[in-house]
Structures are given as C-alpha cells and as structure tokens.
Hints:
- By secondary structure, the protein is α+β, with helices and mostly antiparallel strands.
- The protein has 15 helices and 18 strands.
- Helices cover 39% and strands 29% of the residues.
- Strand 7 and strand 8 (157-160) form a beta hairpin.
Amino acid sequence: MMIVTKYGQLKSHFISLFEHNTDAILLLDTDGYILDANSAFIELGSYAEEDFINQHFSKFIVNDTDNNEDQQQLFCEVDLLDLRFTFITKDNTYIGCLMRLNPVKENETIVGYFLIIKNMTKLDKMAEQYLESELNYRTIAENFHDVLILMDKDKNYLYVSPSSYDVFHFDHTKINDRNPFFNIHADYVDEIDAKFKAAIEKGQAFQMKLKAYHEKKGWIWTEIKGKSIYNRNGQFLHVLLIARDISQEREQEEKLKHLAYHDMLTSLPNRRMFVEQLEVAIQRLDEEKRPFAILLLDIDNFKQINDSYGHEIGDKVIIEFSSRISHIVGERGLVARLGGDEFVVLMKDFINEEQVVDTARQINELVKQDIQIQHTHLQITTSIGISMCNRETFTASQILRYADEALYHVKGMGKDAFSVYRVK
C-alpha cells in the first residue's frame, strides 16, 4: 500500500484510521496529487485505482461557488478548514460533501496531506425536511445563520429571518415595503424570477449562485436554494428560500484554481494551463485560420548556477528570468513555466514571422543584462526554439516537438540564440 511505503514513519493507528474510516480519505503529496485513497473513497466515487492515482485532487471536486511563494504555504492556508464542495463520481453524479485538509508531518516537516471527504447527502436531506415543517421553521430561523425567506405566489415577503442583518445587513422587520428580490444583482433577476415561477407552477426546486447586495460590503457572492412548500393536502403554501453568503468559499475556490493552474515559484501559468491554451489556439487555427507561434526556451548552463551558488540563488534567477520574459511578451502571448528552468511562450497575436523573431531577439538581449541577487552578480543567457503554427494539420505534440528540435539546434550551435523550425 502506497501510504505505508511513502510514509513508513506513520503510526499504525493512523494507517488503520485511513483504511477503515467511513469517510472518504485521499493521501496527497505536497502539490495536491493523489498518492492513495481508502476504500470509502473508491466506494463513494465508483473509481478504479487507475482513475485517480497521480491525478490532481481538484479533478474530482467542484467548489460550491462554481460559476470550477510556495505550494505548501497555499495548502497551509486551508489547513483544518471545513469547506462545502461537490464531489464528482465516475458516472458524473454530483454529491454534496464536506472537505477537510490535514497535514502529514515527519520531524515537523509537511510531507503530504490527508484530504477527508464526508458525504453530506443524508444530513442535508434531514435538514431540508426539518426546515420544510411549517411548525418548526420559525424556531429554526431564529437560530439559523443562513437567511430563511418565505414568499407567496405573488412574490410578497411573508417572513425573513433575523439573520438577514448578519448576512446582508438589512432589517428583516422592514421587509414588507421592499420590492421582490430587491437586493439581487440585475444580472440575475430574470433567472431567479424564472426559477421562482417554475417552483410554483411545476414544483421544481432550484439552487443558484448569484450576487446579492450587502448594505455595507456591497455585492457579495450568495447561494440561494428554493422550493415550494405544500400542506398535507397538497395545497401550495409558499416558496421557501435559503440564502447563504459564500464569499469565503469563492475566495477559497480562487486559491484552489491558482493552485491547479499556476507555478508556485514564479506565479506564472503552469504546464496544465499552457496545454489547455495550446489546444484552444489549435482549435482557433482550424476554425478561424488564426496562426500562432511557440517559443520554447531555457537558461543556458543553469545547472552550474545551482551547483555553484545553491538552489536559493537558483530559484531567484528563475524568478528574474520569468519576469524578463513576461516583460518582453506582455499582452501579446502567454508565458508559462513547464518546470525547472524550462519556459514556453504561446504567441497568438502577431502580424508575421518577423514579429515573432523580433520578440525572441529582444528576450535574448534582455536576459543577458546583469542580475544582482544579494551580493552576487550573475549574467545568464537563454536558448530559444521557435515553432510557427500556420497549418491546420498541426497537433500539440508536433508543435512542441518542432520547437524542441529548434531549441536543440541552438544548443548545438553554441547557445545564446534562437532558431525557427522549418517544416520540411
């Protein structure tokens, strides 16, 4: 079992807890990739081991806000927080879950994480049934952090819980003179109005994310669930709405998205984002005949810098190198770090090949300027391989291979230059 081989120092009761816990548990490395999972996770998602091993955990969850420096530090920011997420099973069933992230430490050093996923389906159902009870809703509302709202079929407010002041900073006792959905952003009014109508006419429950107005904070992200309530004889009583502030969860989603799509050292897009953008560029080339170019580059003799000055200086050289590339490329393309000292530029907006070549020339010149790190003065150079993409038959692997061959040609010619691959 992978958890035993990789974290042999863990006590046996931790291993037992992992294997026999009724909640789904993932063992993650420090970058968020799945090393192992317990049987509860496999049962919850109906996944086979090959479906999740070495996959990023974000592939299997959708944050409830879905409208979908150091990596270890980002994980620490969510350490021990209970967050609501939607879990995606193998057959694309969505399950409401509670997520908690716990660090795994050896000698005070974080070596991985346990991601605990609790299925909240039964608890949510119980809470929903309890809230639907006409006899109990007022008692619940007085002690409920979310905002409970009752509206009649004409969208008149029948009741708003006191928690509306904490969540939206408005007085629930003065709600009767307000227009329907008075604090809902104009972009969402038509949608919630249509869902409200469907709830009454067809009995369709609904859930949506939107912006609602807070008297002091302005527009905040809010989740609203709604459904029609009927008496025992099946007669319509009112629509029950539950509004919840999800601003913090949205902020957490952004952190997770950054974690999945950005390099933690340079904050540049990572390989995952680059590959996705490359596929988009290929599609645009096929459909709109819009060419693009790939510039593959690395730092010449970077290993010598690490060996001579240490990895701390090496990391700062990479950060400065990435900054200089980004300065030259600007808004004309995407700069991404593939790993180590290897970077790539995806140029989508250019007039001709000369403009791409001129960009490479500028990068070569700027990179050669002196770098001062603390008391250390360095001068580096870069080699660049260019692949011009103007034929619909290109695939992503071909494009990268052509750029890599051009880069290899530069290395063989003495480095500190660029070369354009010519399709034979």
